[in-house]
Amino acid sequence: MDKIVIQGARRLKGEVEISGAKNATLPIMAAALLTDEVSRIEGVPRLRDVQTMIRLLRVLGAKVDFSNGALEIKPSRTLKTVAPYHLVSTMRASFCVLGPLLARLGRADISLPGGCVIGARPIDLHLKGLASLGASITIEHGFVKARANRGLKGEDIYLGGKFGSSVLATANVLMAATLAKGVTYIENAACEPELVDLADFLVKMGAKIQGQGSHLIEIRGVQKLHGAKHRVITDRIEAGTFMVAGAMQKSNDITIRNCNPEHNHALLDKLQEAGIRVRRTKSTVRISRHGKLEPVDVTTLPYPGFPTDLQAQLMALASVTPGISVITEKIYPDRFMHVSELNRMGANIFLEGSSAIVHGKSRLSGAPVMASDLRASAALVLAGLAAEDKTEVHRVYHLDRGYENIEEKLLKLGADIKRERE
Ligand code: EPZ
């Protein structure tokens, strides 16, 4: 296993290029199963989660080629319909093959995704939505078994859960509905940009979809979809992580290229409130920090609210912002594994229910820390960049699930960072 070693308190300056969005790529790869024709997906990041999805598509009977950032996917006419435990359990997004397999082949046996370190992650909304389209669903021996022998039928579906809309449940139902008979309405649909990108890809495949990006999506079922070519959007969470990196220390000045500032509105607003200078064009954001920062209060919410996937990174920033910041997690109330690790670096954070009360300081001190999940790992790297002396982030395989070449990108910005074998 690798670790990342950082000598902190180096000024960051220069430009960084953002990669394609992981959370757009994964459901789009699943959507390619809705046809037996070839699809080409460009701008794909080289990440562990993408490799896992490639393995799953191959197990299901698709030919997949991945070179120069482009995926070519050619599903066979008679796909296999069983998604095994050893793949689905390592990555929840693989549960997204359920909708396409059910819609195209009338059956799917998908392993339950299982527990997750960021808290409970139920699948009731996925199942509710697909059952509304006429699938019969049972759970047996750790597998979701879905059947639709006579095909799926369009329906008016309310897809809201305890914590609001669900990104991947909306994706699963949206994909299934493209081949259902009649019209489907998804109410309380998720509006995340990655879902809009999925819908755009489906439209290129011949699907009839309206309302993507709003809470009401209309899907008119068609008999067949065809292969399509698509370039995925850039990764707003990676972009947001670099925006926070730029804010972590006085006199940092970095330009984030190949991003869509619109997708990071909530974060940029908070950074400006904290006192960061933000200059944006259509596809770049320049972040510079001069004076002192002010603490900020943040609550995570579905898009366009502040994303849960940037909560840990913002907490790293709050830890080095003198004053009290309150960070409330409304999507995954237990997503706070980074708190104890940030405290090891000298932060002063305590939890009160689903809120973290952060007593910010002017400096953290480097320490050995343990990454627990993808975004927590990113937060520890950010903390290490701003801390005095050496920080070692262990178990960095989490980071490789979602950040393409993160050390190279940070090195180019002037960080003192390297990867070592444990
Ligand atoms: C997606 O997960 C992302 N994953 C997550 O990214 C992200 O944190 C999350 O959306 C929220 O934005 C991918 O896109 C691959 P949800 P998803 O269903 O779709 C509850 C990362 O670091 N819920 O929108 O699985 C759920 O418990 C990650 O890249 C139900 O109650 O999340 C949560 O409270 C990790 N029943 C809320 O909805 C369900 O059936 C939103 O979760 C499904 C979800």
Question: Strand sequence of the main sheet, in spatial order?
Answer: 22-23-1-24
Question: Strand tally, please?
Answer: 24
CATH architecture field of the largest domain: Alpha-beta prism
- How many separate structural domains? 2
- Low-pLDDT segments, ≥5 res: none
Strand content: 25-35%
> What separation lies between the terminal Cα atoms?
6 Å
Bound molecules: ligand EPZ
> What is the C-alpha radius of gyration, as a whole number of Å?
21 Å
Helix content: 25-40%
The CATH top-level class label of the largest domain? Alpha Beta
Given helix and strand content, the structural type is: alpha/beta
Remind me, CATH topology of the largest domain? UDP-n-acetylglucosamine1-carboxyvinyl-transferase, Chain
Q: How would you sum up the global shape? A: elongated
Compute the average pLDDT.
96
CATH superfamily of the largest domain: Enolpyruvate transferase domain
Question: Please, how many helices?
Answer: 14
What kind of sheet is the major sheet?
Answer: 4 strands, mixed
Summarize the topology.
Layout: E1 2-7, E2 13-17, H1 22-31, E3 39-42, H2 48-60, E4 62-67, E5 70-75, E6 82-83, H3 85-88, H4 98-105, E7 107-111, H5 124-132, E8 136-140, E9 143-147, E10 156-158, H6 167-177, E11 183-187, H7 193-204, E12 208-210, E13 216-220, E14 229-231, H8 236-247, E15 253-257, H9 265-274, E16 277-280, E17 284-288, E18 298-299, H10 311-319, E19 323-328, H11 338-344, E20 349-352, E21 355-360, E22 368-370, H12 374-386, E23 390-394, H13 397-400, H14 406-412, E24 416-421
Parallel strand pairs: 2-15, 3-14, 6-7, 10-11, 18-19, 22-23
Antiparallel strand pairs: 1-23, 1-24, 3-5, 4-5, 7-9, 8-9, 11-13, 12-13, 15-17, 16-17, 19-21, 20-21
Helix pairs in contact: 1-2, 1-7, 4-6, 5-6, 6-7, 10-12
